[in-house]
């Protein structure tokens, strides 16, 4: 049958995937124990994260979507006829709000480490936006971006898009490095969660239905399945605490007993009450984030905020 959309061009830079086994062993042999949040997103983890995004307590997604809808026309004036590059594009849903308001944007570049998911999301966009040139760029965006090798990015207005407050997973020094790398590309539209009372933040990361807990604890299930470990899920619990000094939510798995877990030949000891950190989620005031952006060489020129002061979308000019 005839194609009714422009085929998606794929640039595959074959980013090396971090080895799950060595990352897990390394993280469990540290003190305090920690494992990178990137490993939370297996099939079940991605489903649980999608469920988190619709929880009543998790205000981030719906607030950001509302901001994008409310200010789409103004954001479109900043986009002009530039090329839109989405970092960690996942299923590329939020960018549709921008594309709907900015028909003059003719090029979309999705950038993700997961080639299959990326390609499918770009294809779905190409189908829904006839005339849009959709490009899939499979690469690790924490590494220097191969822009010299992408003709579609040469000599044109380019705007990065990094929604979801995903930058919150990075420690501030890493966040500056990410922003410096993104600045090579052009301007940046970025979603950032605001500082607020712990009474609002903590339920967002430890909800009444236990979905946030299931999301973190699924990491242990994944380790059991993929690495042949023997975590007893009944001997661990989940906790999310807002550390006001650091301005971050700390998500951790807590051992309910002194115990030894086996991962292949390795023995991992847990003390009673010992923690395994699964994520940080940093929160920034508008001013703090603008300082961070300036440290990375950006000029903050606009910030959109909801009436309840929950969330920011920043426009950063290179
Ligand atoms: C995907 C990093 C933006 O920090 O709000 C939500 C991850 N983890 N609930 C966040 C998360 C548990 C989320 N980010």
Automatic annotation (TrEMBL):
GO process terms (BP): methylation
EC number, UniProt record: 2.1.1.44
Positions of the Histidine-specific methyltransferase SAM-dependent domain: 20-317
Cited InterPro entries: EgtD (IPR035094), EgtD_Methyltrsf_superfamily (IPR051128), MeTrfase_dom (IPR019257), MeTrfase_EgtD-like (IPR017804), SAM-dependent_MTases_sf (IPR029063)
Gene Ontology terms, MF aspect: L-histidine N(alpha)-methyltransferase activity
Record key words, sorted: Methyltransferase, Transferase
Alphabetized SUPFAM superfamilies for the sequence: S-adenosyl-L-methionine-dependent methyltransferases (SSF53335)
A Pfam match: Methyltransf_33
EC supergroup of this enzyme: transferase
Identification of the protein by name: L-histidine N(Alpha)-methyltransferase
Organism: Thermoleptolyngbya sichuanensis A183
Organism lineage string: Bacteria, Bacillati, Cyanobacteriota, Cyanophyceae, Oculatellales
